[in-house]
Amino acid sequence: MSGSVGDRIASLLQEKRVFTPPASFSAQARIKSMDEYRRLYRESIEDPDSFWSRHAEELHWFKKWDKVLEWEEPYAKWFVGGETNICYNCLDRHLSTWRRNKAAIIWEGEPGESRTLRYLDLHREVCRFANVLKSLGIQKGDRVSIFMGMVPELVVAVLACARIGAVHSVVFGGFSAEALADRNNDAGAKLLITQDGGWRRGKIIPLKETADAALEKSPTVEKCVVLRRTGHEVPMREGRDFWWHELMEGASDKCEAEVVDSEHMLYLLYTSGTTGKPKGVIHTTGGYMVGTYVTTKYVFDVRDEDTYWCTADIGWVTGHSYIVYGPLANGATVVMYEGAPNWPDPGRFWQIVEKYRVSIFYTAPTAIRAFIKWGDEWVTKYDLSSLRLLGTVGEPINPEAWMWYHTVVGKERCPIVDTWWQTETGAIMITPLPGATPTKPGSATLPFFGVVPDIVDREGNSLGPNEGGYLVIRRPWPSMLRGIYGDPERYEKQYWGQVPHCYFTGDGARRDEDGYYWIMGRVDDVLNVSGHRLSTMEIESALVAHPAVAEAAVVGRPDEIKGEAVVAFVTLKGEYQPSSELADEIRKFVRQQIGAHAQPDDVRFAEALPKTRSGKIMRRLLRDLAAGRPPGDMTTLEDFSVLERLRQSEE
Ligand code: PRX
After folding, report:
1. What domain count does the chain have?
2. Distance between CA atoms of 116 and 503, rounded to whole angstroms?
3. Residue 535, in any domain of the structure
4. What angle (nearest 5°) sits at the alpha carbon of residue 394, between those of residues 150 and 68?
5. How many Å lie between the centroid of ligand 1 and the Cα of residue 314?
6. What confidence tens digit (pLDDT) does each residue in 46-63 have?
7. If you measure from the C-alpha of residue 420 to the centroid of ligand 1, how many angstroms do you get, rounded to a whole number?
């Protein structure tokens, strides 16, 4: 593990504060005490069939399952033989209740407009778009890529796919054409849904332009639906591109939800791993539906009176599980915001909280740290008295940021749920329950129902209190990934082949004397930049594709706001000279290859990269170097010769 992880353990070991849930919160919560949590947790482990059946029965099944779990390591089937439809559960189920007129989505565009879709409206739009999909030849099992900004139509597109049993693959709108094409091709997508552009910090993100470039290299994609959002002129290719509004005009609003098997593939979501190629994580229907439904119900304790806002983008798993599926399955009112947190000023999030009287707020530590930097006045000038529960996700939250969130945002009234999970886990795995669990700043606390985590060494031996090790999960859980699309071997090796009979998370963690989990960060070559996963290998392959770059090594360095920043060490081909212009060009090149979020913060030139005799790049050394010294003059070459003696000791 890197030096920064070691430092984290040291500093977190000092953290002794404990915050118990306010009595008034516990009194009305679904899980009111630790006794209740422990009782249910025990049931979920000792009698998982009864625990999961009881919760699954709260949802609609066209045919009930025969068996709760079929486990043939490493493949799980949940609610075997059951038939359902997740879109039906998110929408139709509510239409026979008073919720039909309840707001499902309250959307705010970055320029300031606002739209509300009641459950009835969302259902109608989804049915119509489902018919559009059918009219374009999309059938059950077909893959559909979605490359959009945070607009209600993104939710409509996702749910319409689920409604007809098509598999959605949402690609975050910040990705490059290259990255979008890779994902289209890997998924064998038949259709791409995009929009002319999206608003971000007052500027237009040219989504269609990027989509067009991607489509040049996406032979499987036959058609493209384009939503008009910004209204700027975009080229439309006859026979391939269709306007969303034109297709919707004639579409019927009657569309029965397709009855699908519990294990029917619901979606693919690409995420970075330890190789240069992103992997398409597979989620299926029944288990994922139950997992996101139950976690939303207990972790956010969502009520009909709540106004719930998760600030994530639907391009990432958090948006899938906790903007779309979990909250809508619970019949919640969801706030959705299109743009940047600091547009037109750093008060935007808090202005939205005040405007819509948001009561549950779920965000990322990187955003919290940015707000701390921008100054308390942007927060305190708004009325935040509607808030009753706060959450974080995506990366470890440092105790200072936790305390700021607790005092400045939560006014010491709101429990904070620090939720640990992953794209692969589909739903929250380690988390406080807000009415029950005493929280410690920086700890994700205890396992959710049915989750059996452990801290182990490479052989799978459990480690003792406060010993740092690998975080693994010992048993299958309903929302777990079912595989990597087109690459079963990678699934078996990466997740189940590292520690015997355990799911390997890739995270390091420790468990304290109270059984609380403290996540320390990734132990593999995956960076966590602003809560987003990036593979060092993926960035390195982008770097070496630049004509000037001979060799590249990417490491993370601790960053006050982003958690980790990307540092690229590169050697140049003979005819090139280091310069700050070239460093900039290389940074932009990576942006074009992958996306803005992957752009290196620093590019540092070196004569040669430090390597062991067997030719392995000495990453630890580079990490220390990247962390130890602020980026200097881009024109000077890093001199690794002084490190030569270290080479001997590392071997
Ligand atoms: O390292 C952990 C970190 O984010 C990784 C998963 O990233 P991704 O699949 O992109 O999903 C992010 C949103 C679910 C994990 O392996 N991580 C996520 N949540 C936490 C966290 N680290 C510490 N504390 C958390 N609450």
Report:
1. 3
2. 41
3. no
4. 90
5. 15
6. 999 999 999 999 999 999
7. 6
